[in-house]
Amino acid sequence: MKTRRVTAGVASVLALSLGAAACGGGGDDNDGGGNGKKDAALNSIVNASSKKGGTVTYEHSDVPDSLDPGNTYYGWVQNFSRLYGRTLTSFKPAAGKEGLQIVPDLAEGLGKSSPDAKTWTYKLRAGVKFQDGTPVTSKDVKYAIERSNFAPEALSNGPTYFKSYLEGGDKYKGPYKDKSAEGIKSIETPDDRTIIFKLKQPFADFDYLATFSQTAPVPQSKDTGAKYVQAIQSTGPYQFQSYEEGRGATLVRNPQWDAKTDPVRKALPDKISIKFKVNPVTVDNNLLSDKITADAAGTGVQPQTQPKVLRGKYVNQTDSSYAGATQYIALNLKVAPFDNIHCRKAVQWGLDKQSVLDAMGGSPKGDVATTLLPPSVNGYTKFDSYATEGHKGDVAKAKAELKACGKPNGFSTIMTARSDRPAEVAQATAVQASLKKIGINIEIKQFPAGKYFSNFAGVPSYVHKNKLGMLSMAWGADWPTGYGFLDQIINGAAIKPSGGNNLMELDDPKINKALTDAIANTDDAARTKAWGEIDKMVQDNASVVPVIYRKNLLLRPTSATNVTVTQAYLGMYDYLLMGSSK
């Protein structure tokens, strides 16, 4: 339907956008750009190589929420999982704006939509197999979506789009509780290669949704719920040779993968290695010494490393990429005193955002944010509901709001931060110092990133019990439109018992309806305009404190080949454009 036109429109708006991570090492067939140009990977492939073989190595400062494609919501895992899980559609692995294009992956073509955008049909490619040689069918895709969206008792980390938009999604109990062979009726599989989605309302962005790792097929006979991560059945060019929870994984070639059925992946390396729980500064040092291919987190070097790479011999190996992401503070509406809008507005007026940016590393880390939508996402509208000179806050207005909320002398609260993200801890410390000036006393509690949403900040009962009023959050678009950015963090329907991302617990009927009405609108311009209007509604509610439009200061090791910043996975390097390693 209008998906192709929507994609082209988004691509024309975004110069630098979202991203993911990758490189190889020690290749040949250089494209002439080499590793010697600053920001070269933003719009080109650096050190292009067609050489096969070698090992690509990654390190990560914590653990993933899960490497199970149906149980993850981290951007880097969404991209990493494309090595072993093929989805109905995918983002094109290409440099610059071309990386925003949606292309068929497991499906032969993009979705065929009914005129009202409520029915979407995909035809699977012939010849795709699981790693054990079993042919992939439409029923395997259907089952993957059922387990990932309708079984929060086992898989709680992923988004809830399918559950929200499929007919009967609010009633289906999931494959572990539903013992019938039929499953959810609104996903039809009339034959082994056809899958049809019946929606309860129009959804103009459905081809974007089909890129999610939740559509990577899973054979029901091999599914073990939360333990499936220990024995994932690959449909991509790599399969797991080993996986040690909390430590790392090794992937090797999948002999059942057929390049003739896969126009997306080149699969140059022989092996992929990833190690977890590595100190982030150590990760930086290993990049500098060319010991690893890339930082899997893809969020850029640490503040301690920035001075070293911003000058001297390393500066031309850096790419400063807009991440299509906003760093913000969620004020939980169920934790006093943030159940009072005036207490929330006191934080909005009182925060010195410039000091927070400076503490996180200054301009290399991004720009001061005044909206939830970042400038690189389609639908962004420039405004500042709490404008102060130099973004340094307004003490008088903040104290007036404290008086209005019945806390003239201020109050005490708790703020969260992820312990393995020094920049986020630095942010929380700067917020603490800034708000102390108006009488708001903050205790900082740190949690591991890998369990941040599943066990702590994304669990309402834990947040309420422990009175976590201010929650550090960074969010990038699920896909590069306003809906792809906003829905899972401001829609009341996205609040979950665990693994949630609506950390404010915002459930405003007007905002919920505005989201639903906008995504149902097949007029591109009207839909785009609506996202900025919804952003203003969120700012009026004052439960979100935008802090920084994020940038990633990425570092290319000298031996890295086929390096580019992908436009679709949070401004990191693209895993699928990795080369071979020395």
From TrEMBL:
**Signal sequence residues:** 1-22
Tell me the CDD domains matching this sequence. PBP2_clavulanate_OppA2 (cd08506)
For the Solute-binding protein family domain, which residue ranges apply?
101-490
Note the InterPro entries from the entry: Peptide/Ni-bd, SBP_5, SBP_5_dom
The answer to whether keyword Lipid metabolism applies is no
- Name it: Peptide/nickel transport system substrate-binding protein
Which keywords does UniProt give here? Answer: Signal
Q: Does the keyword Signal apply?
A: yes
